[in-house]
Amino acid sequence: MPATRTVNSKQILDLAGCQQVTVAVLFHSLLQYLKQNSNNDVTLYEKLEAEIYSIFVHGSVTHSPMNQEFFTMTSLKNVCEINFQGCWRLDQNRLVHWLHVACPNLKVLNISQCPQLNVDILPQILKGCKYVEVLNASLNILRTQVELSSDRISMHIFNQDSCKYEGYLCSLTNLSFEGRNHLKDSDLYLLTRYCLNLSTINFGGCSQLTDKGLSIFLSSIRNLTKLQVPYTAFGRLSVNAVLGFSCEQHSDELWSDKIQSDFYTRECALATLDLEGCLNIDRDSISQLIKEAPLLENLNLGFLSLDDSTLLCFSGTSLNNLNLQETQVTEYGIAHILKWNQHLNSLNIRGCKKITSALAFKISDTIRKQDALNIGMAETSTLKCLAAGWGFTDSTFMALKPSLRHLQSFSLGLGSRISECVLSNLHEILPQLEDLSLVFQAISGSCMLDLLKHGQALKRLELCHCFVELSHEIIHVMPTALTSLRLERGIEWMTDADIELLVSKHQTLTSLYLTGCKNLTPRSLETISKSWQAMTYLTLKECGTMTLNGGGCLFVCKALKHLTLQHSGAGLDKDFVKCALVEVTANQLLKTN
């Protein structure tokens, strides 16, 4: 089989991004595999070929006596993981037959970014692949506010034929339908019939699901440890379901068999909880949920209506990642979290406008008053990522200084203000810093040069809309280890010669984002494409006339995954996409051969 690799004697079939692959190609590859392993038995090979042809044409396996031998010959018993991410040409029904025939021992299936495959694939897989543990069927989504459905349970796309398979996927524990905003409550009913042992669920962005539908579904999950439902209608009823509290009986026909007895009190063992943007949930419900979930390690409450009273309800001590972006928390609630969660790796308090400089005194006082067991917080702190905004000042930063020794990622956004004195000595305060992002910061050019001269360990740098007078010298002092560079505004002076200098000093760059370089010409685009062929992310906005000659020179960048060219010249040729597709196909054929 093409594109396979072996890990611990188990084979992984990776076809991610192969947009030309079809089920016909998969069956053809399977035949080639069989031809190599049939010991030159022409008769057997012809029978296998006829059987596969019958599957592909008629969509079913014939009832011939050689079926058992057929399945024995075609099974790729060592293939336990398959990645079909972005393979949007795969037909669902024929794909399921191929999986049944080729991979009966499949455990991990990734069909993310495949909009043509839907929830009905679960009962279809059940018929032949009974060992699937992980199914990723997510789609790309933009995390923005969405319009949520009403609490009326929707039924109109429910397919009763999907329930004709008996049994359930007892091995399936990890399920992701993130971004599938067409998912309905009726689909959840289907999931309750086949997925009884789920522990990890991701329904992020599924805006058509109602709180009532989610609550009934979650009430049937007994061993939930990871729940990700950002930007959904997750609310009070769903909270009660997670905690096993009683709920009113539902009269909807679809859920008529789900009665109050389905709800029972149980211990909440959640380790990951993502409720970002769930505007349907009230403050009391959030408090109740995190109060009953002391084992949480990853908690995302961004863009919710909560304050310190919610944080004070949390009694856990195992938090690794905490997102409180755009909430109403203050220094008091954050101090409580920092006091009891000494292994916190990532803290996002960007947009928390109620945080003041008093945080410095509060946290310092908290550290001083800790008992002997906790007094070593400064020495044992593992905070690695910090994102801050409104109210974050020098006093705040210095108060946190004892806990920032291991900080690797530091992001300052709108509303924060760090003095140049602190920025110039950032390399001493944060010796392990690798990722620095400054957005809407007022900095002098000399301070910026000092910061970069001493920050040679930086791998990722973002300077976005900063009030700073950058000069050509910044290119000479930029850390040579940079892999990602984002410069927005303040670099209008950049020329083709500066791009060539940047290229010569930063060979390892794989991500580049430039905005407002008005003096650049097509020469710069050619320089970028020839010198950074390993580039995976490229964004050029308002960059002079870079695309005046089209973008054909970018075809040599075989690793490119994300490309944005906006207002940077006359634009791309009309056949750019077609030519790019030819290049991609040719590259895939070379890899296969």
From TrEMBL:
Q: Does the keyword Secreted apply?
A: no
Cite the Gene3D superfamilies for this sequence.
Ribonuclease Inhibitor
Q: Report whether Endoplasmic reticulum shows up as a keyword of the record.
A: no
Tell me what this protein is called.
Answer: F-box/LRR-repeat protein 15-like leucin rich repeat domain-containing protein
SMART domains documented for this protein: LRR_CC (SM00367)
F-box/LRR-repeat protein 15-like leucin rich repeat domain: which residues? 183-357
**Gene Ontology annotations for the cellular component aspect, listed alphabetically:** cytoplasm
Organism of origin: Ceratopteris richardii
Q: Which UniProt keywords apply?
A: Ubl conjugation pathway
Domain of life the protein comes from: Eukaryota
